[in-house]
Amino acid sequence: MLIVMDSAATADDVRRVIEAVEGLGLQAHAIPGAQRTAIGVTGNRGSVESASFENLPGVAEVIPVTAPYKLVSREAKREDTVVSIGGVAVGGHRVAVVAGPCAVESEKQALDIARQVCAGGATLYRGGAFKPRTSPYSFQGLGEAGLKILAKVREETGLPIVTEVLDTDTAELVAEYADCLQIGARNMQNFALLKKIGRMRKPVLLKRGMSATIEEFLLSAEYLLSEGNYEVVLCERGVRTFANHTRNTLDLSVVPYVKRISHLPILVDPSHGTGKRLKVLPMSRAAIAAGSDGLLIEVHDHPEAALSDGPQALLPEMFAQLMSEVRLLAPVVGRTA
Ligand code: PEP
Ligand code: MN
């Protein structure tokens, strides 16, 4: 259920409604919007009697929410959410581009790539220090040493850092260094991790699970919001299908769909979505045209020697080309880059 407050409602009116909700043993989540505040009610097993709230001062309407996700829905908040990652807006007018290597491999590698993506126009830097690998024998990431390198990249380039958090044990450590915590496809339904990160006050980049429906994807985001973390950016990174010409099938149709039913920003990751360097530029164009709030692009200066995801990494000059095309395309769909 959503309790929508009148635009003239006072802070006291909002507080009284929250007390009434909590008095019934339920949770109240105040979601401030540009025009009015909505209060999401969760924790109820069946339907809640709307009459308990309708007559409280400042209440404009009480809306039963039929969708299983509530706080992430457009019903809860009409305006687009803009998440600030270290001062860079994601979900606003300007498309955001997160770029960098799949994994931090050394200080030189991370800094060399960072200088080049920064010159190309990236707005955020990415690189994994803790890597989720299919094989236990593959490179697992540099761990804390990798996080320290990421902090140096931020210091030198000024780019805020997006990096993956793999488990609840290392969440605090990663949060000490990162500006945004990435929850990877394999962890999209790691509910213990979602709850823990939901209690942290750090922006989150939540990637779609490789076989997740949109409802499952949004319910994972709902875990984060229901714990109080509203700084959530979604990311479509492709799903597994019968197709074998591509690593995954990049499902661009989720962009307009998610934009309609949710207020959260959504990025597209054509690197993992295709797995092939030559497909990244055309699918980036398509993602911007479809209304994505930005892109996540893997870049490596020696992809043949990369310790993970080399075949999909763009060379820095290819990234610069991609950025110049994005700058041309974004205005066509009313954005800037
Ligand atoms: C990554 O971003 O490097 C990554 C492992 O992504 P995903 O979780 O989408 O596979
Ligand atoms: Mn990768």
* Tally of separate helices: 11
The profile of the biggest β sheet is: 8 strands, parallel
- Report the C-alpha radius of gyration, rounded: 21 Å
Distance between the termini: 38 Å
What key phrases describe this protein's structure?
4-stranded antiparallel β-sheet; binds manganese (II) ion; elongated; binds phosphoenolpyruvate; TIM Barrel; alpha/beta; 337 residues
Model description:
By secondary structure, the protein is of the alpha/beta class. It folds into 2 domains: about 1-65, 2-Layer Sandwich (Alpha-Beta Plaits), CATH 3.30.70.1140; about 85-335, TIM Barrel, CATH 3.20.20.70. The protein has helices at about 10-25, 50-55, 105-120, 145-155, 170-175, 190-200, 215-225, 255-260, 270-275, 275-290, 315-330; strands at about 1-5, 25-30, 35-40, 60-65, 85, 90, 95-100, 125, 160-165, 180-185, 205, 230-235, 265-270, 295-300. The strands form 3 sheets. The chain has an 8-stranded parallel beta sheet. The chain has a 4-stranded antiparallel beta sheet with strand order 2-3-1-4, with helices on one face. Strand 8, helix 4 and strand 9 (about 160-165) form a beta-alpha-beta unit. Helix 3 (about 105-120) packs parallel to helix 11 (about 315-330). The radius of gyration is 21 Å and the shape is elongated. The mean pLDDT is about 95. Manganese (II) ion binds near residues 272, 298 and 308.
